[in-house]
Design goal:
Blueprint: H1 2-18, H2 20-30, H3 38-57, H4 63-84, H5 89-109, H6 112-121, H7 127-138, H8 147-166, H9 170-174, H10 177-203
Helix pairs in contact: 1-4, 1-8, 2-4, 3-4, 3-5, 4-5, 7-10, 8-10
Length: 205
């Protein structure tokens, strides 16, 4: 049971770590970030960094998955987004390196309740992306948001929910609940928005 449970945790971490790659590819390929929320990806990077520290402290094997997920976002995706927005490299990497450095002492020394509240607060990181996806849908605009990224995120959170129930770990049970709803909402707006945008282009003479 323990081996199977940890395998589920590793699968969830693998899905998490691969989540940012489709979005990174789309940004590199199309050279734009239309519809992509910088705040959402910054807080996802914060989330993966925090979970890396938390799972390491709790001796959970999925730590390496969270670490790689954070590295993928911090080393590939965030620099790509900042570059399209012409952010100076020094500012870009100060932000990227500063986040985990601030998290390490907090996760290690803050009271357990404070850590739980903090991890729960990070589940709202999808809201800016929901707002952007809704606006692009409503205004019939082009979106460079990767559907594959959010499908992987949804699958990861479903795995984490099952993992938390089987472990059991209250943090791992509570944390995926809202992201599952948010990921479904993002996917709905993006799918409807893409269809609406394509149909509008067909109507142009």
């Amino acid at each position: 049971m323990e081996i199977g449970l940890e395998a589920l945790g590793i699968l969830a971490a693998l899905l998490d770590l691969s989540m940012s790659l489709p979005q990174t590819y789309k940004i590199w390929k199309n050279k734009n970030t239309e519809g992509v929320s910088l705040f959402t990806w910054l807080t996802l990077y914060t989330t993966f960094s925090a979970w890396t520290i938390y799972t390491y402290q709790q001796h959970i094997l999925a730590t390496v998955g969270f670490l790689i997920a954070a590295l993928f976002i911090g080393a590939l995706l965030l620099p790509a987004i900042f570059k399209t927005r012409k952010t100076p490299p020094l500012k870009t990497y100060s932000i990227i390196l500063g986040i985990p450095l601030l998290l390490i002492p907090f996760i290690y020394y803050a009271p357990a309740l404070a850590i739980t509240i903090f991890l729960l607060s990070l589940t709202f990181n999808r809201i800016p992306q929901i707002v952007k996806s809704y606006k692009t849908y409503k205004n019939t605009q082009y979106s460079n948001v990767s559907l594959s990224a959010w499908i992987l995120g949804l699958a990861a959170n479903l795995c984490w929910l099952v993992y938390g129930i089987l472990k059991p770990d209250i943090n791992i049970i509570l944390i995926p609940l809202m992201p599952i709803l948010y990921d479904l909402t993002i996917l709905t707006f993006e799918l409807l928005g893409n269809r609406k945008y394509k149909n509008s282009k067909k109507l142009v003479p």
